[in-house]
Amino acid sequence: MKSYDVAVIGSGPGGYVAAIRCAQLGMTTAIIEKYSTLGGTCLNVGCIPSKALLDSSHHYEDAVKHFEEHGIEIPGDIKINLEKMIARKQSVVDQTTSGIDFLMKKNKIDVYEGLGSFKDATHISIDGKEKTEIEAKHTIIATGSKPSNLPFIKLDKERIITSTEALKLKEIPKHLIVIGGGVIGLELGQVYRRLGSEVTVIEFMDRIIAGMDASLSKELNKVFKKAKFKMNMSHKVTSVERVGDEVIVKAENKKGETVEFKGDYCLVAVGRTPFTDGLNLEAAGVKLTDRGQIETNAHLQTTAKNIYAVGDVVKGAMLAHKASEEGVLVAEELAGQKPHIDYNLIPGVVYTWPEVAAVGKTEEELKEAGVDYKVGQFPMRALGRSRASMDTDGFVKILADKKTDEILGVHMIGARAADLIAEAVVAMEYRASAEDISRMSHAHPTFAEAIKEAALDVDGNALHI
Asked: Boundaries of each FAD/NAD(P)-binding domain copy (predicted)?
């Protein structure tokens, strides 16, 4: 039986990063993955493939709607080859996952393919092509999450589908019904709307992306309506039924009336659930919370002292980059270092177009906490760079403490917001004031100028509005 300093169960962004950092710090490390490819949900059926399809569909939409205005004329009809689009997506996934294989070899990490389960706190059985057992002084659980479902919905994975199936459809839906107005539903809904599907979004809450600042929800909703999405807020889905090639969804609106939606596909995108099946946690003394998450302390240590957990299986936002930060933190804790994570400064992003990104507190949170704050906001349409690229939707909003001017939250919607949010994270990590950003030179013409202008506007000094 092989023995290791650390065994990592799960090879997503939390697991593989934790394994690499452990190896860098001199620990003998093994990683256990039940699937044949490394990378977990993010690389295989989540972040990476969805962005590949978002980019492909964005190119198509530009060609159909915007090329002529740019003076680019394409003779004949522009056609979609969905099979080729899906194949390109898969090639991106394959390149990315093979990159993880390389990193495992480079860092001398042993990879075991199979389902890992605890025999006790220091022994793990691996049920793969062959059954084996390893011993580990410490274990990091990084098994991620799976798509959630509503109890009355039967997923047939053909017409009533999750995000996994939506990434490899054989045809473009005529009418895609999306249950859930969160990140996953909106991103995949936009992919198929661009490709010609009619898209209906049904959301239980009174707004989309409900966890983000209300102003972002309002602006994105406006963008989606302009793109002819059918948006239905405050609707409680009560049944989903497939009849032949048709899916019938019934829901109650806020008046209590039953409304019916008919489409040929229904994407159930109501969030994700921690995945701990088959781990045999009881044998190791690891406890779950009432929400099915693994119980941990501030150091991500479980109720078994030598076992840690990171990513989607523990509390907090289900984000790949949050999982990676936690993986590094645990590795450095095991090496005797003193790492830390400021969870308030982990950005959230929606990769629609325009992109939506935020870090820190929302206006709603500041009001609830009774914090005196001031607001600076700048519209993307006022930027020369936005007009040049025809990306004029959106704005940047900065929330700062009324007395100290310290930045408390940054919320943006617009082109490249996913990349621009990093400036806000850096500023807030160093406890910058709005004035600090307003006095830094930003290259012209760039989208980033909107951040400077929003910072100026905190004190009413914006130059271009």
From this structure: 4-327
Are residues 23 and 29 in contact, defined by beta-carbon separation less than 8 angstroms? Answer: yes
- Count structural domains, the chain: 3
Q: Over the stretch 48-78, which tens digit does the pLDDT of each residue have? A: 999 999 999 999 999 999 999 999 999 999 9
Hey, what are 101's tokens?
A: 């294989």
463 within a domain of the structure (yes/no): no
Question: Within the chain, how many helices (H) and strands (E) appear?
Answer: 14, 22
In the three-class reduction of DSSP (H, G, I as helix; E, B as strand; rest coil), residue 113 is classed as: strand
Name the residues annotated as catalytic.
444
* Domain match, 138 and 278 both: yes
Look at residues 341, 362, 380 and tell me which one is the last residue of a structural domain: 341
Half-sphere exposure of 86 (CA within 13 A, CB side): 15
Residue % of the chain over a pLDDT of 90: 100
The secondary element (H helix, E strand) that includes residue 181 is none
**Overall pTM surpassing 0.90 (yes/no):** yes
Q: What is the CATH number of the domain that holds 54?
A: 3.50.50.60
pLDDT band at 14 (very low <50, low <70, confident <90, very high): very high
Same domain, 111 and 187: no
Which residues form the domain of 440?
Answer: 345-457
**∠ CA 155-159-165 to the nearest 5 degrees?**
75
User: Could you tell me if 121 and 251 lie in one domain?
Assistant: no
